[in-house]
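Practice problem: predict the structure.
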Amino acid sequence: MKESKLDILKFNINRIDGYIEKADNKANFLLALNGIIIGIIFSKSTEILEFIKKSQSWVIVNSISWICIITFCIVSIVFSLLAINPRKSKNQTTYKSILYYKDITDAKVYIRRFNRKTSTDKKIVNEFCIQVVELSKICDKKMICINQSILFLKVYWSISILYGLIYCINYIH
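Answer:
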């Protein structure tokens, strides 16, 4: 029974590590996408400002639209950066683990801690359970940030599409 518990815990650790890696990849993609968009906006900023000035009756709508697009894009970037940011849960700052890399920096201390925490099967299982919980907390925080980044991306894309439709209706005729 002991091996099966450990196997399940190891499987969960690997699975959650995979989720964390996928979360980081999604955040990197969102960051790159938002970076390209904000780069295009800023490279065309003089043209955008000229367009806003020329559209006399729509100056406020144009200004608010561009301010919202830029703001939401920046907020999406911030959430992507927060997702990428390496983190640890609050428990990892107080609890000394035999599995957490920062707690494995001194060989003598690690050997002593390892021997103490692996002295019984129950202690080994508990150590792995704690690691699963800590990784799950980290993964959850990353996923929340990614979801927020995607939400703001959707909002500013929606504003962009609406703005484009308004432009087409009013200026192409």
